[in-house]
Each structure stands twice: as C-alpha cells, then as structure tokens.
Design brief:
Distance between the termini: 27 Å
CATH class: Alpha Beta
CATH architecture: Alpha-Beta Complex
Strand content: over 45%
Strand order of the largest sheet: 1-2-3-4-5
Largest sheet: 5 strands, antiparallel
Number of helices: 2
Number of strands: 5
CATH topology: Aspartate Aminotransferase, domain 1
Shape: elongated
Radius of gyration: 18 Å
Helix content: 10-25%
CATH superfamily: F-actin capping protein, beta subunit
Length: about 120
Amino acid sequence: MYPSEGLLAMEQKVNDSLYTYCKQYFMGENVISSSYFFDTDGTGFGAAYLINKVIENEGKVKKGQWDSNHVVSVMIDGKNATYKVVSAVILQLLSNDPDNYGQLEMAGTLTTSVR
C-alpha cells in the first residue's frame, strides 16, 4: 500500500535529504537510511525515519552500531497542525583495547516522546 501522491512526493524528497545527511554526519560508509510516509484517517499523516550505522575495527572500536527510529504523527485542523514525535536510539559498542578499557562492552537505549 502506497501513500497518497502528495505524501509519496514528500517521502522521496525526504529520502534524498536523509541520504545526504547520513553520508555527511555518519562519514559515508556502512550507513543505511529510509523514510516512510503514510496516510492516516484523512485528517493528517505519519512518517517514520530510520537510520542504521555499523562500524567494525575502527580505532579502538571492535564493533559498534547506531540505530535511530523516529516516528512523527501529524494531525491537521484547518490551518493548524499538531505533531507528536516518538524517537528511539539504540547504541552498542565493543572495545578492542582491553589493556586500557578492560573488556568494555556497552549498550544503551533512549526513547522519548514529544507533543
């Protein structure tokens, strides 16, 4: 199921912009991004933005992974719009420098919601 024509056009523009952002911010390699727009009940729309970055054997990092997911819900009432954003970030890091850091393995997650 595809979004309406207007949302599909926005999705394509956002995917192009998100691709450029990820290549610059996450230094180009091993990064994947996507955005998806979808129609809701007729008074708004939703969108999801997904970013994944994996590194292996770079500097003192044996393996690392960044996942961020952002879901936006937009409700339109005349000339006014209400936005709700839910974001989750998951980070995993494994050091390959046990002499300085011990057997460091770190993972964390953060989820927020703003209206």
